[in-house]
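lol so apparently i was supposed to do this last week
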Amino acid sequence: MEWSDCERLTEALVFAAARHRDQRRKDADRSPYINHPIALLQVLLVEARIQGPPEVLIAALLHDILEDTATRPEELAERFGAEIRDLVLELTDDKSLPKAERKRLQIERAAGLSPKARLIALADKISNLRDLATSPPPDWDLERRRAYFDWAAAAVEPLRGTHAELERLFDLALSRRP
Ligand code: NDP
Ligand code: ZN
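anyway here it is w/ NDP bound
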């Protein structure tokens, strides 16, 4: 990555930390939400050694910002460019739809994701399965945790053939299904 890409990556981290500042994960400790976008960066850059294109790493840090904060797509475009806005939009669920419908649509739309969005979607599922195995929401019973693993497996199936190491990491996380 160029120096200017490192700058943009750092700006995305600072921006995401600010926007997610009042949000917590669903684990018993209510961890800071920003740990999750950081986990995606770790999976992509450190574990899977994906060093570019930079948009993948930048959009990974911003992937939940439209879904979970008051940030608007136009603001993302102004700060980070139209490509980042479009990548994050690809990864954003329509929260006006019922939960079950959103889950179904993610599976249906997975095959149509762009190559860059597929990498981020894989890292997202890896991070969430790991969290569910090690620090699940305390009010989720065994059945619900298992149902999430099964849904994640179905959502990743159309993404296979994207990146061997990411898929290996996903399968490893999936193998910890409770
Ligand atoms: P949710 O979508 O409500 O919650 C899971 C999401 O929460 C993750 O995708 C992740 O999204 C985020 N998250 C935050 N903290 C954690 C954490 N510690 N561990 C893992 N994820 C975290 O879950 P679902 O509604 O999908 O429930 C899972 C399954 O259980 C479903 O398949 C459903 O069929 C079944 N079920 C659902 C019920 C319901 O009321 N919804 C009731 C009973 C069963 P992000 O990456 O965006 O942060
Ligand atoms: Zn996420």
